[in-house]
Design brief:
The chain is of the alpha/beta class. The protein has 13 helices and 14 strands. It has two domains: 128 residues, Enolase-like, N-terminal domain (Enolase-like, domain 1, 2-Layer Sandwich), CATH 3.30.390; 223 residues, Enolase-like C-terminal domain (TIM Barrel), CATH 3.20.20. The model has no long low-confidence stretch (mean pLDDT 96). Pfam families: MR_MLE_C, MR_MLE_N.
Length: 370
């Protein structure tokens, strides 16, 4: 089986409401969808969600990288040669992990379809029956976040993820404690600072105020490049620390393991350049006795399904946050959210049916590479 044609779509997914995190407010979510065709008639779908704050890529630059470099390079290759494909992309350009993820995911979709198996069976089989997903709350006033959190719990959500990190750290502490008071002590609360507390001193002071609030973990409290600082925060506080933006590569993960800088790691396919390296990172974390999460860059059904296949295949991946499709007012796929779980279809490949009509509707521009 050889790749014969690639179609690249620049898409904007409309959000039901603006998504506010520490470093940006998103009115919609830009993504790159690729469609790979083969000489066997099979078609594979991939997705890349670039973010200049996390992967160092712009929407427009990642489109050009795929158009001019990566997609022309893989024409004529077999999707099964996934390591060779990654090697070729790495030789062409360093970084650009979200663009590489789009290619990687489409190749895995093709591999699964070619052998008639869901992707998780290519990764070691189904290690977990199902994983729930949290209600994600973006940054708002403490009272509003508390009201939304209480409503989410009443709707049946088993856990909450709170986005904080905008403004003063004390404001974030107030947000978190307001939510805890609103939902009681039993609902797991995950806090994602998205680097917003910046320095170890600020982070330690904030976390100390939360040590009695039964917080599951604090995610990426300080700047991504300060792994030693992250280790300092962990050593001086009693709430588990999750590393996210600090892990851009296997080398970063090994440094976090060496310095004991985190309790949990957040693996995102957009950072790991796709499924292939995400699985390797989960295995490395397992060897160090660390648990993992498969996190979200607010992908559609295509990228979210890819993340769930990885999560289902690894015993040390205990949580996911792949809720992008729930935030969109319009989508292209049919990933099956049966609250509070996602149910993978078991169909070959990613198991997601993509609506060509919806893809065309949401596409800003496209190109074909043969």
């Amino acid at each position: 089986m050889k790749i014969t044609k690639a179609t690249l779509h620049a898409v904007r997914f409309p959000l039901s409401e603006p998504f506010i995190i520490s470093y940006a407010t998103y009115p919609d979510m830009p993504a790159l969808i690729i469609v790979l065709e083969t000489d066997t008639g099979l078609t594979g779908y991939g997705e890349g969600v670039p973010d200049e704050h996390v992967t160092g890529e712009y929407f427009t630059s990642a489109f050009e990288v795929l158009k001019e470099r990566f997609l022309p390079a893989i024409i004529g290759m077999s999707p099964f040669d996934i390591e060779a494909i990654h090697s070729k992309m790495n030789a062409l350009m360093t970084g650009n992990s979200a663009a590489k993820a789009a290619v990687d995911i489409a190749c895995y979709d093709l591999m699964g379809k070619a052998v008639g198996q869901p992707v998780y069976n290519l990764l070691g089989g189904q290690a977990t029956e199902h994983l729930d997903y949290p209600k994600v709350l973006s940054i708002e006033a403490p009272k509003i976040m508390a009201e939304k959190a209480k409503k989410a719990v009443e709707m049946g959500y088993a856990s909450l993820k709170l986005k904080v990190g905008k403004g003063q750290a004390q404001e974030d502490v107030d947000r978190i404690l307001a939510v805890r008071e609103a939902v009681g002590r039993d609902t797991p609360i995950r806090v994602d600072v998205n680097q917003g507390w910046k320095t170890p001193g600020i982070a330690v002071a904030a976390i100390k105020q939360l040590e009695g609030a039964n917080i599951a973990w604090i995610e990426q409290p300080i700047r991504m490049g300060d792994i030693r600082g992250l280790a300092e925060v962990r050593s001086k506080t009693a709430v588990p620390i999750m590393a996210d933006e600090s892990i851009q590569s296997m080398e970063d993960l090994l440094e976090i393991i060496r310095l004991q800088a985190a309790d949990v790691i957040n693996i995102k396919l957009m950072k790991s350049a796709g499924i292939f390296h995400a699985g390797q990172m989960a295995k490395a974390a397992e060897s160090a006795g660390m648990l993992c999460q498969i996190g979200s860059m607010v992908e559609s059904s295509v990228g979210s399904a890819a993340g769930y296949h990885v999560a289902m295949s690894r015993i040390n991946i205990e949580s996911t946050e792949l809720t992008g499709p729930l935030l969109f007012s319009e989508e292209i796929g049919d990933l099956n959210y049966q609250h509070p779980y996602v149910l993978l279809s078991g169909k070959p490949g990613l198991g997601v049916e993509v609506s060509q009509a919806q893809l065309d509707k949401l596409t800003e521009k496209s190109c074909v590479i043969e």
